[in-house]
C-alpha cells in the first residue's frame, strides 16, 4: 500500500514539474509553438500507456495520435514570428483588439450555451459536450497563461508587473478557466 502512495506522490511531483516547465515555456517562447508541443504529450502518453500499463491502443487512438502529430507539425511549420512582449499592458492591448474580442465573446457565448443548454440535455450521454467546454476555454486560457507567465518573468527581472490591474485580471481568468476545465474534464472521466 505504501508503495502505491509513493508512486502516486512521484507521479504528482512529475506532473507538477511538467506544468511548471510548461508555464515557463510560455514566458520564453511564442504560445503558437508551446501549445502544439503540449499536444504531442498525448502521443507519448498513449504509447507509454500501451507499453507500461498494457493498455490497448485501438484504431480511434491511433487516428487521434496521427491527427495530433499532423496538426502540431502543421502549426509549427507555419507559425508566424512573434515580437518581443515588454509588459502585460502590451498583452492587454492585443487582448482588446477587435478580432480577439469578437473571438473571446464567441467562445464565452458558446461555453455558456454548452453549460446551460447542452450539458443538462446531452452531458450524461455525449462526452463531446464536456470536451467542447474544455477545449473552448483552453483557447482562452493559453492567452491568459502567456500574460501571467510574462508578468512573472518581467517581475523577476526587475520590472514589477503585478502593480497593473491587467496582471490580476489575467491571473483571475487563468484560475477561473482552469477550475471550469477541471470540473468538466472530471465529468468526462
Mean pLDDT: 82
Q: What is the gyration radius calculated from CA atoms?
A: 19 Å
- What proportion strand? under 5%
Instruction: Give a quick account of the main beta sheet: strands, pairing sense, barrel closure.
Output: none
Q: Show unreliable segments.
A: none
Structural class: mainly alpha
Number of helical segments with 4 or more residues: 7
Any descriptors?
82% helix, 189 residues
Can you summarize this structure?
The protein is an all-alpha fold and 189 residues long. It is 82% helix and 0% strand. The chain has a domain at 86-189.
If you had to describe this structure to a student in words, what would you say it looks like?
With 189 residues, the chain is mainly α. The relative contact order is 0.09. The model has no long low-confidence stretch (mean pLDDT 82). It has a domain of 104 residues. It has 7 helices and no strands. It starts with a helix and ends with a helix.
Task: Give the topology.
Layout: H1 2-28, H2 31-52, H3 59-77, H4 88-95, H5 98-122, H6 127-156, H7 165-188
Helix pairs in contact: 1-6, 2-3, 4-6, 5-6, 6-7
